[in-house]
Input
Amino acid sequence: MSTLPKYTKQQLSLRNGQDKPEIWVAFKGKIYDVGASRLWRNGKHYEHWAGQDLTPEMEDAPHTASVFDKFEPIGELI
Output
């Protein structure tokens, strides 16, 4: 059983780099803090915005899901 804190989609949406200083994204039920990545400055990465579940968007991404291996999950999306 995971001991990670749980967050709703509404809570995640506030971590978009604009409403709050955190820059978070979700993928396959896990939430990642991507704020340290230069690729996510101001909460935007190409056509993707922070504060969202990126699971459905990964199918069209030019990279694989292994990109999330660079980040430790900080929470779970409920």
